[in-house]
Amino acid sequence: MQRCGCPVPAADQWPRTWKGYDHNTYAELCRCCGLVLLPSGTKWSVWFCDDCKPLVIAFNRALGRCVVPIGRHSIMNGVGARGADLVSNAAIEQIADGVQSMIAGIEALEVFAGLVTMRNVTTLGFDAASDVPLKAYLRAVERSE
Length: 145
What we know:
Elements: E1 27-29, E2 37-39, H1 53-63, H2 89-123, H3 134-144
Antiparallel strand pairs: 1-2
């Protein structure tokens, strides 16, 4: 499921999480190329296909920190600590800064992924103002390769 532009429901109206999932997302497109459908739904799901993931990891490594999160869990993005590490306010602030940075990265990545998908929709000959069925989108991707 690729997130649409629909308003997010209030917390008390949010549907229950599907059995066996951490959140209700069965699959989603690679957030870099938008061309590959990836399994999703767990806190450990990776947002990038096999071609894009190494590029994202190399980019983050070159910058010395996680700018582009590879998944939704903080540990996947190098943000975390054991309880024994949190003995000072400075350590706690460092973790908090890491989490805030990761959240900002996720938000920016969601915007980027939407732009990539819209570009692909147009490039593949669909009307960007209309809903595009996922099957039709993936068939068009396959034909374009």
